[in-house]
Amino acid sequence: MDKSDKLYSAYLDILHEELMPAMGCTEPIAIAYAAAMARKVLEDMPDRVEVYASDNIIKNVKSVVVPNTGNLRGIKAATAAGIVAGNADKVLEVISEVSREKQKEIALFLDSTDISLHNSPNDIIFDIIVKVYAGSSCASVQISHYHTNIVHIGKDDKEVFHTQPCDDINQTTVTDRSIMTVEGIIDFAESVDIDKVKDALQKQVKYNSAIAEEGIKNKWGANVGSVLLNTWGNDIKTRAKAFAAAGSDARMSGCELPVVIVSGSGNQGLAASVPVIEYAKELQVDQDTLYRALLISNLVTIHQKTGIGRLSAYCGAISAGIGAGAGITWLLGGKYEEVAHTIVNALAIVSGIICDGAKPSCAGKIASAVEAGILGYHMYKNGQQFYAGEGIVTKGVENTIKNIGRLGRDGMAQTDKEIIKIMLGE
């Protein structure tokens, strides 16, 4: 790809927008970020708090441990952590530095302060509003569409900052993702000046490998990663699944190590990167080759998620596991044809696994997604594939990816509502 091409610059921008560090599940961390920002604007400790959240935020925060809170869960815990101990300047690492004393203060604030929860008044899938009150003074912060996208800040009756929340993420200030294609991704990954993306990829390898190792060594969540190794052994196909799952085991249960996220999700960041890192170790490739494989995995993940949306009833780990399959295929010598068939084969196998919020079972879904990505490659290597007209598979990888976007965005919209009702006991 010509480095003066607009596509080249767009892919670079997308990567820099997507690959960022976060500590903890990103939905509660986004709430903590909004709360920390609201507290900063208020310039006082609030005596009352109101939190407004869209259904998908409620779904993804309900069951996950908020790190650095002493094993607390849920929206109120994330809000209190942001207010009491958050540093808004650190964005998605907002509660990465919390002392034991501050953890006690978080618990005390929860016990002594009225924090009321409400459904978002806006028809936006990803929407958070935190309002904090101190006497007659009030401050509010709204985040919409993605985890760092502050669209409104208010203090008393004045607007400090405002940008009109639009109908979807593609109308925001992020780079247009619709330009992406599998062929373009491979072209970019094979031609990019690695120095342009090296810092982000180095951090992804370092952070995501560290939390995966932690998930294997110690007991976290349902220990899916350890179960895989103990049951099926230590070959590379098992390690690729196990270490990715182990990172999620730790992360979903409150591990305080950071993760480099993809498509706004740490679990997707783990699923897209750790299997590729494990295969690179097995194959003993050089660092440059690993980074190019990670570019393919990350960008294929983002490409799939573009049509689905940030939050959906369609499990994002599926997109990331298939992205990892694409990166692994390239590591094993595959080019566009092999990568494209790997993606289609894998999509035919696991598309439709539901997202029922962030919690320990995410690790199992990651393992299934990575398994499908690897199987998709080995099917094609052995002369086997799924064909157009078989279910949701359509001729051409881009057309099948579009079908998945339609399925996740439109077809599973009612499924999303039913999942939320089930989770809330309605």
From TrEMBL:
Q: Which residues form a coiled coil?
A: none
Say which domain of life the source belongs to. Answer: Bacteria
What keywords tag this UniProt record? Lyase
**Does the keyword Lyase belong to this entry?**
yes
Q: Which GO terms of type biological process are on file?
A: L-cysteine catabolic process to pyruvate
Query: Which InterPro entries would you find in this protein's record?
Result: Ser_deHydtase-like_asu (IPR005130), UPF0597 (IPR021144)
List the signal peptide residues. Answer: none
* Single Gene Ontology MF annotation: L-cysteine desulfhydrase activity
Chain ranges of the Serine dehydratase-like alpha subunit domain = 92-420
Provide the family line: Belongs to the UPF0597 family.
Protein's UniProt name: UPF0597 protein OM074_03420
Source species of the chain: Plebeiibacterium marinum
Q: What is the lineage of its organism?
A: Bacteria, Pseudomonadati, Bacteroidota, Bacteroidia, Marinilabiliales
